[in-house]
Amino acid sequence: MTTQPLHGLLSADLSVATAGVTLFADALRQQAVPVTEAAWQPPMPGTEADLARVLADPRREAANAEAVRRMMAAGAELVDVRPAREALGLEKGTFLHAGPPIEFARASGPLKGALIGAMLLEGLADSAPDAEAKLEKGDGITLEPCHHRDAVGPMAGVISPSMWVYELRDEVHGNTSWCSLNEGLGKVLRYGAYGPEVIDRLHWMNATLGPILQQAVRARVDQGSAIDIKAIIAQMLQMGDEGHNRNRAGSLMLLRELLPTMITADAPSTDIAEAVRFSGANEHFFLNLGMPACKLATLAGQGIPGSSIVTTMARNGTDFGIRVSGTGDEWFTGPANTPEGLFLGSYGPEDANPDIGDSAITETGGIGGFAMAAAPAIVKFVGGDVPFALQATQTMYEITASEHTAFQIPILEFRGTPTGIDVAAVARTGILPQINTGMAGRVAGTGQVGAGLVNPPPRCFTQALSRLAELATP
Amino acid sequence: MADHVELRTGAYYDSVSLMQVSRAVAATSGVEAAQVAMATDLNLDVIRGMGFEVPAAAPNDLLIAIRGDDSGIEAGKSAVETALAELRSASGSSAGLGQAPAPRTLGGATRRGHANLALVSVPGPHATTEALDAINAGVSVMVFSDNVPLADEIRLKDAAAAQDVLVMGPDCGTAVVGGVALGFANVVSPGTMGLVAASGTGAQQVMCLLDAAGVGISHCLGVGGRDLSAEVAGRSTKQALAALAADEATTSILVVSKPPAPQVLSDIERYAAELGKPVHWATLGAGKPDLTAAVEGALRSAGQAVGEWPSWGAGSAAPGQGSLRGLFCGGTLADEAMLIASEELARSEGTHSRSEGTHSRSEGTHSRSEGTHSRSEGTHSRSGQIRSNIPLSPELALGPDLRDDGHVVIDFGDDSMTQGRAHPMIDPSLRLERIAVEAADPTCGVLLLDLVLGFGAHPDPAGELAEAIRKARATAHSDGRTLPVVVSITGTSGDPQGLERCATTLVDAGAEVYLSNAVAARRAVALLHKEAAQ
């Protein structure tokens, strides 16, 4: 038998996909032919020529497949907890922060507040006004994105040398990533608060919590059973978490893993009790492990020539920035949008700061807003309804290159989460990534004011597309 | 009376849907005029032409223009909302629990539906992107969209060949695959003749003639109007020929084309000779058989008798004084009419014009967007000259106003006339306006029109056209002129609009109607001369 030309088209029963005029789809239905119609929209304005070049890049398809294959293959084991000074080689006066690079003068309220708090914590200033003055002057002070050190930090994301960080390891690709310890909710440094209770808590975390967690984690590593963070993410998605704004199941599972070696740590029992109570009371305990796990995934997918897959989405409260696998370390930025959602207490929209934090690494890695269908309970917190949560995830499939092989959503018949945001697909469809997020107060020192939903500014993607077009091979 | 003009950004709808919205709004009581359209340059011209003041707008903005009394404008605005809401709910973006939103790209739709064929009719600048989706998914694709760059067409077809899939188009109006009609297509009986068509309305004309002669078709594979140009070099035609050669249902093949590049045609002829199945040719050009003659040749070689082609009201019109005015929706029908009419006109006006000398045309120029070669045969007498927006040679191009006192043929389906507008077979308004203009023009001696039925075409095309013809003849009559009208109708008895019913409607309005476009073109020329119309 010879194979028929055109894959046997002329002898097949037709099933037709259409994009464009509905009239023609209707005419096919009149002839009882199955039709699947695309709800086609023009691409983002001005992207036509770049899209044509990027989509025609012969490397792209394979490069994107490789990028998402690596992202999904990346492991994430918790291997250590130690001070940032040691883990990241942070020198006194160097502060890491969330999002793309920014100078203090342009920093938003919450980032300024967190930096002021970190100055006080490090003993580099006597008071908040003193800290602010020194930061403004800038002598001996270096601000640097967490992402430039393969680290991530939620909200303001400020990491100073004395703060303790989790260290996660991807043995498959030989990468390491780091994230600060979570302080809980309310008046906390990452939301820009720097009052005495904030600084006291940070001191306690450095002196007590960090060392206990270190002993607990190292004991697990010594037993040859480092905690598999990726496995917890897979499970929490089946327990109503989406890994960004809802981390309840993940936090409990993490505590379950840590408890046996926490309680046997060499520390006063009252300290251990307080460390356990603090961790157990914090619904976002796991966020600071889910984030570096996603960072390891996107690190693995980085640097593949021709790939249009997004490997970083991060915000510093002023700018939203993305980085793309095929464009190296270059940031593509635009003004951060302000989230829409629900507010705590008497706070309102006018109190909210624009989008901030490295936590959008979760969406970049295929969870968070992209896994919203897994977490219908989240809609009460971010101000949507259940069908919206299901729609949000399903819409993200339109802009992602793959479906995650490990992270699944039961209500979608265990479909893998939408993974690997494709810059070209974003430009083509005009669909922007859906991010779930907390909202920080606009004024330095306020703390959290609410939670909600936000999208990146389109220009991040159109700029990245332009750059990909320049780099495209003909 | 007041004007309401409103601009909405980020609200895209296709031109066909908006035409329906415009109609619904214009029909609202109290509304005198209304247009709802994407703010493309062409649409802005139309709306400004209606007397509306239009603000600066981008092509992806939705423009709503309503004129009427105060209550009419309010009613019109709510009619816009109702019509747009209907469009949105029909678009399948459901919000139900667990139900997936509609895919946004052709790639998404292809995966979702496990499709084995794709159809692209998005605006030209975006068509390449969508078509590539289908090709990458290993699926053949019909590209109805026009205004696709030539380089993109070549790129698409090379990518398709590598995947062993067929690109039908761009600017492919019609196709029939295994009995399924795609795009604009007539309902024809199944049979054994396979068509390869570098022409949409040309293929429809051929299928309708075959159907009238009792011959069915197996498939009609459109390849796009430029496929036999020197640049595209028959890339899709060869694939389509090979597929039909391997197809058990097909016993003979007919190639239909707008005037092809000669070197490409001879290359394809050599290729076709090796296929092992008889191949017939309906490739238009000066000195070549017209479509009707080519169909007759194919019928005769298959041992079929060839009778008279159907007509309605033939011979009923009185001749007119002046020039030929051909107003077409079908590009190939316009081409064929020009080829025939210029020959006929040259013959009848020849003695007179020869004293003015002959006019030599340059060989190898490219005047047409299709990229076909110039159909120069060396010399032609000026007497047969027909000016057109798709002229037979460059010097016969009409100016931007598309007006001339001499013989004129206009293709309203040409790329330049459809940017941001639906094809005239769907939205006939531009042509209907022009019919009224010609009726009032004392230099217009005869109107030659086409009417194409079938899937995709206007649901009642004859009714609107008949009304326009009736008004045109009345206008001419009141000016003391006779305006004969000849219509070439492309349709079958199986078409949703009904061939007989449409033809009768046109005859009742005073037109002569012919199934054969060639016969219609000859008749129109004859009506310019008293002695031919006794």
TrEMBL record, chain A:
<protein>
    <recommendedName>
        <fullName>DUF1116 domain-containing protein</fullName>
    </recommendedName>
</protein>
<dbReference type="InterPro" id="IPR009499">
    <property type="entry name" value="AllG-like"/>
</dbReference>
<dbReference type="InterPro" id="IPR024033">
    <property type="entry name" value="OXTCase_su_AllG_h-dom"/>
</dbReference>
<dbReference type="Pfam" id="PF06545">
    <property type="entry name" value="AllG"/>
</dbReference>
UniProtKB/TrEMBL annotation, chain B:
<dbReference type="GO" id="GO:0009361">
    <property type="term" value="C:succinate-CoA ligase complex (ADP-forming)"/>
</dbReference>
<dbReference type="GO" id="GO:0004776">
    <property type="term" value="F:succinate-CoA ligase (GDP-forming) activity"/>
</dbReference>
<feature type="domain" description="ATP-citrate synthase/succinyl-CoA ligase C-terminal">
    <location>
        <begin position="327"/>
        <end position="525"/>
    </location>
</feature>
<feature type="compositionally biased region" description="Basic and acidic residues">
    <location>
        <begin position="346"/>
        <end position="380"/>
    </location>
</feature>
<dbReference type="GO" id="GO:0005829">
    <property type="term" value="C:cytosol"/>
</dbReference>
<feature type="compositionally biased region" description="Polar residues">
    <location>
        <begin position="381"/>
        <end position="391"/>
    </location>
</feature>
<dbReference type="InterPro" id="IPR016102">
    <property type="entry name" value="Succinyl-CoA_synth-like"/>
</dbReference>
<dbReference type="GO" id="GO:0006099">
    <property type="term" value="P:tricarboxylic acid cycle"/>
</dbReference>
<dbReference type="InterPro" id="IPR005811">
    <property type="entry name" value="SUCC_ACL_C"/>
</dbReference>
<dbReference type="InterPro" id="IPR036291">
    <property type="entry name" value="NAD(P)-bd_dom_sf"/>
</dbReference>
<protein>
    <submittedName>
        <fullName>FdrA family protein</fullName>
    </submittedName>
</protein>
<dbReference type="GO" id="GO:0004775">
    <property type="term" value="F:succinate-CoA ligase (ADP-forming) activity"/>
</dbReference>
<feature type="region of interest" description="Disordered">
    <location>
        <begin position="346"/>
        <end position="399"/>
    </location>
</feature>
<dbReference type="Pfam" id="PF00549">
    <property type="entry name" value="Ligase_CoA"/>
</dbReference>
